[in-house]
């Protein structure tokens, strides 16, 4: 079974931390390249096109204005990401966004949603993260937009961002599955519940196991599904992945994360990917970047499975 919808991957660097509360994620794309991302994908039989880095405004490092930090700069970066990701999808390529902070998912996922609307595909988004990122300016005092992308994609936020792809909302909450969540603000939690977002938090994974969580998150995929994975590196436990700006203890272990990625690969529906919030300034000799590359290899088909035939899973 193929592991992705395309055999050609386009790497798109977006070196900015304009939506984050800590500096350093702007160095993430280069850290992933240094860790051998392109070579690892090529080893899985994938054709890799490295498009280099997008360009956008510098991080002005200013306090929030009217509830948002750096709104103009975030909009500029996300417009660039949107156009770059959409162009690759139109060429039949699998875009891999190298962040940068998680606000960039507004651009990438709105582009994927636009592509799916045009092609008649069903979109499913897997949000691998320690945080729900479902804040609004009313719910968070920081105004950091990297805590708001899922809400924005679902139509809650500044009009310029909610309409990036020409249609708002870009996503319905029913299209999103969040995995690994373990840090949610009280107001944000109420909003998540009100919008009926499907969340497989760490309590659920502790009780039911990663396999069951992923079976639920992947249920209902079919040959017409485009699967987008938004991989925030702080999804991982900080004991194995210290190089992020917002560490939250108690995340997935190495093996749990590998199982998560291998089960996604098993679907054969991966069509686009974000790798975000890698912060080399807080890392240990690029350890977290190397781990991220290792996990992405599994996402593209590298497996520890020794059985000759995969056991059919029930959904």
From TrEMBL:
Name the Gene Ontology biological process terms.
Answer: arginine metabolic process; urea cycle
Q: Which UniProt keywords apply?
A: Arginine metabolism, Hydrolase, Manganese, Metal-binding
Q: Which pathway does it serve?
A: Nitrogen metabolism; urea cycle; L-ornithine and urea from L-arginine: step 1/1
> Residues that bind Mn(2+) 1, according to the entry?
102, 129, 131, 133
What are the required cofactors? Mn(2+)
Entry's CDD domains?
Arginase
Query: Which InterPro entries does the entry mention?
Result: Arginase, Ureohydrolase, Ureohydrolase_dom_sf, Ureohydrolase_Mn_BS
Instruction: One GO cellular component term, please give it.
Output: cytoplasm
Can you state which reaction this protein catalyses? L-arginine + H2O = urea + L-ornithine
Cofactor binding summary note: Binds 2 manganese ions per subunit.
Q: What does the entry list as the binding residues for Mn(2+) 2?
A: 232, 234
Q: Which GO terms describe its molecular function?
A: arginase activity; manganese ion binding
Q: What EC numbers are recorded for this enzyme?
A: 3.5.3.1
Q: Belongs to which family?
A: Belongs to the arginase family.
Q: What is this protein called?
A: Arginase
Native organism: Tepidimonas aquatica
């Amino acid at each position: 079974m193929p592991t992705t919808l395309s055999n050609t991957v386009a790497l798109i660097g977006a070196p900015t931390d304009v939506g984050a509360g800590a500096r350093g994620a702007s160095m993430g794309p280069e850290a992933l390249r240094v860790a051998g991302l392109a070579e690892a994908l090529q080893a899985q039989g994938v054709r890799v096109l490295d498009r280099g880095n997008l360009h956008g405004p510098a991080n002005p490092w200013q306090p929030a204005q009217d509830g948002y930090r750096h709104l103009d700069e975030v909009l500029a970066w996300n417009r660039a990401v949107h156009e770059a990701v959409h162009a690759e999808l139109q060429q039949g390529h699998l875009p891999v966004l190298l962040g940068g902070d998680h606000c960039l998912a507004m651009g990438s996922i709105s582009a994927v949603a636009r592509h799916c609307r045009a092609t008649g595909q069903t979109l499913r988004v897997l949000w691998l993260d320690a945080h729900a990122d479902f804040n609004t300016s009313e719910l968070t005092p920081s105004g950091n937009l990297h805590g708001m992308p899922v809400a924005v994609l679902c139509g809650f936020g500044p009009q310029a961002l909610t309409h990036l792809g020409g249609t708002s909302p870009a996503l319905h909450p029913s299209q999103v599955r969040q995995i690994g969540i373990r840090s949610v603000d009280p107001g944000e939690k109420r909003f998540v519940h009100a919008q009926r977002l499907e969340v497989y938090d760490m309590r659920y994974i502790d009780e039911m196991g990663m396999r069951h969580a992923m079976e639920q998150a992947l249920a209902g995929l079919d040959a017409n599904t485009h699967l987008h994975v938004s991989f925030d590196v702080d999804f991982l436990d900080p004991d194995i992945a210290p190089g992020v700006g917002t560490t939250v203890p108690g995340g997935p272990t190495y093996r749990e994360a590998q199982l998560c990625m291998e089960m996604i690969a098993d679907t054969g529906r991966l069509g686009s990917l974000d790798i975000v919030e890698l912060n080399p300034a807080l890392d240990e000799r690029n350890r977290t970047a190397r781990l991220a590359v290792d996990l992405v290899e599994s996402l593209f088909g590298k497996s520890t499975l020794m059985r000759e035939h995969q056991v059919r899973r029930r959904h």
